[in-house]
């Protein structure tokens, strides 16, 4: 219970002059960005855990270099001005397979790649829609907000609700990050495709049970070019992918994802199901029109 809720003089807006109140929407936008970023990072971690390629574990470190040498996924949560010194401290301790997930919105991917001398980096990017709706739960803590079905559906990669839209290149990066994890374990690409189909396409619409042939399955050429795929034997793993390039350039998966509404639907259901939300056909979350790249 918020004890300050009915005390107008103690609310943030009380001391803001009337002529400046047009900027109060930025407060909600900032909160929405924080909630979306936390939701997407949580979804990514759940996918990694479901791959069964890492064990849950918590350790306390007092030196960034020691932390980086231990962790499989490193989250960069700092001020832009602090990042160069942190990168100097940690870049020599990064393993090739370590995934760096950056929350530092002001530092673009090429700069991160240069600072860390590392390519296995994920960085979500957001843009603002025309409608800015206040749905982010101004009086809720972030943990509570991430348990609210309305807020969680608004964080869905294909949802324009709330006025904040995730650029879909992040979702491509998530897929290629999963491929890199499997490559590090020297898994045959045919086995990886089956695993990804089971992991990413495991949640279905009701209609899928009636027509399983309509359910998508991943193919080799969804991720690599036809020319490369011709020379890749069944036993060989996928190549190692530069995640920064994946998020900055067109890939085979870019074309596959943008041209397959069925795949988008399945990924939407997977995202919501990972937070315990079951969608019906009458509850579409996917936005109409082309997804933001």
TrEMBL record:
GO molecular function, one term: pyrroline-5-carboxylate reductase activity
Domain of life: Eukaryota
Keywords for the protein's UniProt record, in alphabetical order: Oxidoreductase
NADP found in the keyword field: no
GO BP of this protein: L-proline biosynthetic process
Signal keyword on record: no
Similarity comment text for this entry: Belongs to the pyrroline-5-carboxylate reductase family.
Summary of the function given for this chain in its UniProt record: Probable oxidoreductase.
Protein name: NADP-dependent oxidoreductase domain-containing protein 1
């Amino acid at each position: 219970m918020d004890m300050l809720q009915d005390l107008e003089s103690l609310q943030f807006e009380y001391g803001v002059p009337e002529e400046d109140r047009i900027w109060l929407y930025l407060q909600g936008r900032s909160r929405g960005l924080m909630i979306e970023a936390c939701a997407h990072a949580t979804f990514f971690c759940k996918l990694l855990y479901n791959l069964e390629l890492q064990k849950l574990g918590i350790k306390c470190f007092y030196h960034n270099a020691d932390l980086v040498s231990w962790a499989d996924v490193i989250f960069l949560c700092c001020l832009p001005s602090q990042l160069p010194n942190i990168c100097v401290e940690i870049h020599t301790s990064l393993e090739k397979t370590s995934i760096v997930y950056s929350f530092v919105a002001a530092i673009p991917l090429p700069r991160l790649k240069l600072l860390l001398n590392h390519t296995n980096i994920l960085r979500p990017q957001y843009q603002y829609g025309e409608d800015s709706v206040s749905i982010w739960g101004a009086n809720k803590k972030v943990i509570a907000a991430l348990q609210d079905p309305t807020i969680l559906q608004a964080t869905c990669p294909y949802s324009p609700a709330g006025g904040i839209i995730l650029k879909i290149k992040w979702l491509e990066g998530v897929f290629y990050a999963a491929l890199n994890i499997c490559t590090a374990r020297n898994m045959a690409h045919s086995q990886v495709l089956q695993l990804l189909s089971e992991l990413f396409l495991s949640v279905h619409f009701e209609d899928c049970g009636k027509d399983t042939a309509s359910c998508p399955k991943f193919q080799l050429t969804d991720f690599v070019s036809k020319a490369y795929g011709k020379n890749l034997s069944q036993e060989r793993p996928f190549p190692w992918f530069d995640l920064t390039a994946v998020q900055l350039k067109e890939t085979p998966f870019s074309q596959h994802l943008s041209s397959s509404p069925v795949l988008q639907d399945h990924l939407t259901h997977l995202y919501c199901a990972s937070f315990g939300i079951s969608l019906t056909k009458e509850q579409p979350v996917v936005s109409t029109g082309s997804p933001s790249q």
